């Protein structure tokens, strides 16, 4: 073997090595992100800030918070993040996360008027979230006369109303009692 | 003997009447077992005894047919500002109810109807009364005499019965006498809901038939300032309705109520119904070219009504006086012409509106001249401080608010007596009278005794 071919072989191994190593680092990193995303998605993480305690307390008493026959819980992010695409999900998570971090540490969380905020719940509860669990809602409600009329306009896209505009209090049982100052 | 016969006739008559509205005594022992939850069932069965009239109406309603019952509309979450347990049956349970039902509840199933309503002038009925100082002082100061006990009676018995009120609750969550009961169309409920579906679809039947008949509008659209039912009766449309309207069909499905079901339009036909290619709408302003209630009429080019959005942002405003079709007054008129086209030729419609529009513009010349005189007198200090004691002001007020509206509304809805004798004839009398006072004051430099 000439020195040249030896050099060539070395550099090929070197390149392969970089790719393998990069792959491993990438995998580890995405594993970390996945764990991070997972760990920061439920009531345990969200109540690290005491500001969120009333929301959590009212959530535990709601069907979505586990007070149902099977004890199943929807996580905070299941409703409060969009589920239309992974990119949007992560972007919104980062955006709201940074916003909350900023207000919690450098703002005045006590001055927040939660009742006022509830009036535009549709800005922070996402229909795509609801629909990613209630996947069969359209079919399920066609057999129920009451729900049929109510949901018909929604599924036929003849109204721009969002889920929480009709289903007030969903997710948080009597939230109003908990967020009173 | 004669007395006995009369008595029998009377009894038969009463039975026939009772059969028409449903026999309330039958309702009292009502048992329902279809499509309702246990709680829902117990409301119906108990209220059948307590308030049989309510349950009788509900039984006749479409809501009854699809299983929407008391609790579906009246139950609210505990943290709703209207939530109460003023009912023995639910005291101490998890159920909270509200006697008041706001459009926020209706819109859960009828989102588009409520949305369209919010885009219409009807939506500002109550809120604008709060926003306009002149209306407040007329009701409480001039009419109510600022009396400490009585000053709210003019608005409670009068204005708010059509306009609606901003409903307040007492400490037991019961509505106050000053703000309720009323059937006003622009009610504002403590939960923030604006509007009142019951104004036209009276509870608890919520009938589409009822709302399609002129009577639904007539309880408010009458009298010297906007005699719309009188105008309708004066028109050929009203003539035909009064002759044979009792035999027409009023319960066709929305958007499918067409000529054939009726031989002449009612208010709802022209202003709301899906006729021909037009869609139904609960925005009664949408097909209107002019605002013919204002002192000087302008075309409705202001887009949708804005008062509800303002209210949701915490502001009480006068709303949008030029609310109409989102694409402007031309589009509005063209929609109204489409309504006419179901029965009339193009020439008929074009000719009719050409002359009606001219009558509106003719009115505007009167109003502009009169306003000029009033403005000049005001500027020169030649008006009474108490405007309701001022002869010139009163003439101006009647000119636009009473006679002038009759002139314009009579013309645009085909009522000759209102366009003319109650309208332009009175307007020309008014302006002559005003001119005499104006000349006198300008010449003498003082207000006559």
TrEMBL record, chain A:
**Annotated heme 3 binding sites:** 130, 133-134
Where heme 1 binds, per the record, is at: 46, 49, 52
Print the keywords alphabetically: Cell membrane, Electron transport, Heme, Iron, Membrane, Metal-binding, Transmembrane, Transmembrane helix, Transport
The UniProt annotation places heme 4 binding at 163, 166-167
Question: What transmembrane ranges does the database entry give?
Answer: 12-37
Required cofactors, per record? heme
As to how many cofactors bind and how, the note says:
Binds 4 heme groups per subunit.
Post-translationally, this protein is described as follows, namely: Binds 4 heme groups per subunit.
What family classification does the UniProt entry report for this protein?
A: Belongs to the NapC/NirT/NrfH family.
Q: What name does this protein carry?
A: Cytochrome c-type protein
Upper taxonomic lineage: Bacteria, Pseudomonadati, Campylobacterota, Epsilonproteobacteria, Campylobacterales
Automatic annotation (TrEMBL), chain B:
Signal sequence, start to end? 1-18
GO terms (molecular function) for this protein are: oxidoreductase activity
Domain Cytochrome c-552/4: from-to ranges? 105-176
The UniProt entry, under Pfam families, shows:
Cytochrome_C554, Multi-haem_cyto
Q: What is this protein called?
A: Beta-ketoacyl-ACP synthase
Q: Key word Signal present in the record?
A: yes
Identify the species of origin: Malaciobacter molluscorum LMG 25693
Listed A to Z, the keywords are: Signal
Superkingdom, according to UniProt?
Bacteria
């Amino acid at each position: 073997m000439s020195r040249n071919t030896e050099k060539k072989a070395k550099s090929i191994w070197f390149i392969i090595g970089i790719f393998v190593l990069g792959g491993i680092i990438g995998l580890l990193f995405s594993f970390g992100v996945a764990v991070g995303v997972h760990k920061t998605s439920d009531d345990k993480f969200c109540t690290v800030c005491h500001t969120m305690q009333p929301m959590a307390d009212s959530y535990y008493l709601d069907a979505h918070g586990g007070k149902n026959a099977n004890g199943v819980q929807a996580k905070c992010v299941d409703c409060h993040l969009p589920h239309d695409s992974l990119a949007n999900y992560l972007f919104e998570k980062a955006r709201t996360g940074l916003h909350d971090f900023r207000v919690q540490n450098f703002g005045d969380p006590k001055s927040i008027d939660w009742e006022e905020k509830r009036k535009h719940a549709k800005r922070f509860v996402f229909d795509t979230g609801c629909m990613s669990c209630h996947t069969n809602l359209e079919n399920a409600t066609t057999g129920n006369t009451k729900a049929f009329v109510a949901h018909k306009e929604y599924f036929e896209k003849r109204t721009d109303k969002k889920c929480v505009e009709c289903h007030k209090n969903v997710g948080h049982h009597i939230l109003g009692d908990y967020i009173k100052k | 003997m004669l007395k006995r016969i009369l008595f029998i006739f009377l009894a038969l008559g009463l039975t026939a009447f009772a059969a028409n509205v449903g026999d309330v005594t039958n309702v009292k022992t009502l048992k329902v077992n279809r499509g309702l939850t246990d709680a829902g069932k117990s409301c119906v069965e108990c209220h059948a005894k307590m308030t049989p009239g309510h349950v009788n109406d509900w039984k006749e309603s479409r809501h009854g047919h699809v299983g929407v019952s008391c609790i579906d509309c009246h139950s609210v979450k505990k943290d709703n500002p209207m939530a109460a347990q003023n009912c023995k049956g639910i005291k101490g349970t998890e159920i909270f109810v509200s006697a008041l039902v706001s459009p926020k509840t209706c819109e859960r199933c009828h989102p588009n109807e409520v949305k369209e309503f919010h885009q219409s002038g009807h939506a500002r009925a109550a809120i604008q009364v709060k926003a306009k100082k002149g209306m407040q002082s007329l009701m409480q100061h001039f009419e109510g005499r600022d009396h400490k006990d009585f000053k709210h009676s003019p608005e409670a018995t009068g204005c708010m019965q059509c306009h609606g009120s901003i409903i307040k609750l007492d400490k037991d969550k019961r509505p106050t006498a000053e703000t309720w009961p009323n059937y006003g169309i622009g009610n504002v409920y403590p939960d923030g809901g604006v509007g009142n579906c019951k104004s036209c679809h009276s509870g608890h039947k919520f009938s589409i038939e009822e709302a399609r008949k002129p009577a639904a509008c007539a309880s408010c659209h009458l009298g010297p300032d906007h005699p719309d039912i009188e105008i309708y009766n004066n028109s050929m449309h009203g003539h035909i309705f009064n002759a044979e309207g009792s035999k027409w069909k009023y319960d066709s499905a929305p958007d499918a109520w067409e000529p054939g079901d009726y031989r002449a339009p009612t208010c709802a036909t022209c202003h709301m119904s899906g006729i021909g290619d037009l869609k139904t709408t609960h925005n009664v302003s949408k097909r209107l070219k002019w605002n013919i209630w204002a002192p000087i009429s302008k075309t409705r080019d202001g887009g949708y009504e804005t008062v509800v959005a303002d209210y949701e942002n915490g502001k009480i405003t006068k709303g949008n006086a030029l609310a109409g079709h989102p694409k402007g007054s031309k589009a509005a008129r063209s929609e109204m012409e489409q309504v006419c086209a179901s029965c009339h030729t193009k020439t008929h419609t074009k000719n009719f509106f050409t002359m009606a529009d001219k009558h509106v513009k003719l009115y505007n010349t009167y109003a502009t001249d009169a306003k000029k005189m009033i403005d000049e007198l005001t500027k020169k200090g030649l008006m009474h401080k108490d405007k309701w004691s001022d002869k010139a002001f009163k003439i101006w007020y009647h000119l636009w608010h009473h006679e002038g509206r009759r002139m314009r509304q009579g013309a645009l809805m085909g009522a000759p007596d209102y366009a003319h004798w109650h309208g332009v004839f009175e307007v020309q009398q008014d302006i002559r009278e005003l001119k005499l006072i104006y000349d006198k004051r300008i010449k003498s430099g003082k207000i006559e005794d």
